[in-house]
UniProtKB/TrEMBL annotation:
Domain of life of the source: Bacteria
Keyword Signal appears in the UniProt entry: yes
SUPFAM superfamilies: Periplasmic binding protein-like II
InterPro entries cross-referenced by the UniProt entry: Bact_solute-bd_prot1, SBP
Protein name in the entry: Carbohydrate ABC transporter substrate-binding protein, CUT1 family
Pfam family, any one: SBP_bac_1
Organism: Agromyces flavus
The keyword Transport appears for this protein: yes
Organism lineage string: Bacteria, Bacillati, Actinomycetota, Actinomycetes, Micrococcales
Signal peptide coordinates: 1-20
Keywords linked to the UniProt accession: Signal, Sugar transport, Transport
Amino acid sequence: MKTKHLLAATATVVLAGSLAACTPGEDSGNDDANCTNTIPKADLPVVTMWAWYPNMELVVDNFNEQNDEVQVCWTNAGAGGDAYDKFQTAISAGSGAPDVVMLEADRIPTFQAQDALVELNDLGYEDVKDDFSDGAWKDVSVGEGIYGAPVDGGPMGMIYRKDIFEQYGLTPPTTWAEYEEAAQALKDAGGPFFGDLGSNVPAVMMALQYQNGAQPFTYDAAEPEKMGITLNDDASKEVLDYWAGLSSKGLVGKQDQFTPEYISGVIGGEYATYLSAAWAPGYLQGAGVGEGADEGVWAVAPLPQWDPDNPVSVNWGGSAFSVTKQADDPELAAQVAFGVYADEASLEDGWQNQIIFPLNVNVLEDPAFQDYEVPFFDGQQANKEVYVPAANAYTGMTYTPIGQYYYSAFTEQIAAINEGSVSGSEAADALQEDVVGYAEEQGYTVE
C-alpha cells in the first residue's frame, strides 16, 4: 500500500552504521558477548530485546532467573528517538531488528502501519488481559489488534509548590476556571507564573483536549487507508483559546520544558504548578529538583477539570513491549513481552525508585503501593490520592501512524500562540489544515 512505503521513508531519520545489538541471524543465540546482560541458562532458547528502562538489567536478570523456557538477551539501543531510528533502519533493511522492542504507546501505530509488529491477540493476551485496565489496552491497540504488552503509564495530575501556595493563600484548583482565577491572583500579588505553556509538549495539550471531550483521531488497522482527523472542533478550540488567554495575560510562562532553563526555573520557584504525569517525580529528581532549597515543598493534586460534574482522567506517556515481525519465534517472543517486567520484584523496584508508574492492576490495588509515602512529595500518599484513581478512570486514546508529524505541527502552533500571532481557534484551524494535508499526501483518505 502506498501509505506503508511513504511512512517507511518519512517516519524517522535512518542512521548509518551497524546496530549495537544481538540480532536474529547473527548467531547471537547464547553468546553473552552480544548481550548487555549475562544469560544464566545457556541451554534455553534466547529472545533478543531492546529496552531503555533505567532498571532493565535488574528486570532481565529477574526474568532469566525465574524462567525455565526462554532467556532474554537484552541491549540498550538508546532511549526514545535513538532506539526508534535504529528500529526504523532495521525495518527498512528487512533485518537487524530484535525479537522484542520497547515502544512508547503513541509510536506503536507508526510501526504497525509498516507491518513491522506482530498482533498479540492470540499469543498470550487472554492470559494477562485482566492484569490491565481497558484504557491501558486501548493505548497499545490499533483498532481491535493488540500490538504491545503494557508496562507503565502516565496518569496526569497537577504538581504544585506548597510554599508558594501557602505564601499567597492559594488552594489547589479543582477546575480550569479556578486555575485561571488562582493564576490571576498570584500575578496580582506579584508572585511567579502559575504554570507554563511549553511549545515542545504538544502531548499535554492533546491530553487536555481529550479531557474536554475532543477526539482528535480515529484510525483502525482493519481499514488502514482511512483516517479521521478532527483537530478544530469546539472542544479543541476551547482548550487552545483558554491557554492562549493565559499566555497573553502573562499568567503562565512560555519556556520549553525538559530544558536546563526550565528546570532552573522550577528549582528557583518561577512556576507554582507543573502539569505532568506520574513519572514526573522521577524525572524531576533526576534533573536535580527537590534536592536543595526546594526540598520538601512539592505536592500533587488531581488535574483540574473542564466539567467537574463529568470528570475525565487523561494520560501522558507510557511504554510497552512489542514483538517485531523479524522475531524468529513470535510465540516465544510474546512470552517474553508479556512476562518481562511483570514479576513482583521488578515492579516493586520500578515504583519504589520512581522509575515507572506500573499499570498492572495487581500493583495498583496493592496497599503497599497505594499507601506509599512518596519522598519527592514530602511523604504524601500521592498514589492513593491522585495517580491510582486517575489510572483506574483512564479510558485510553486513539493514536495514529502520523502522530509524530501531528506533534511537530502542533508544536509550531503552540509557539505561534505564545508569540501572539494567532488565537487558539486560529491555531486549531491551521493545525487541522496542515495535518489533513499531510495525511492525504501519505495516501490516506481523511474522514
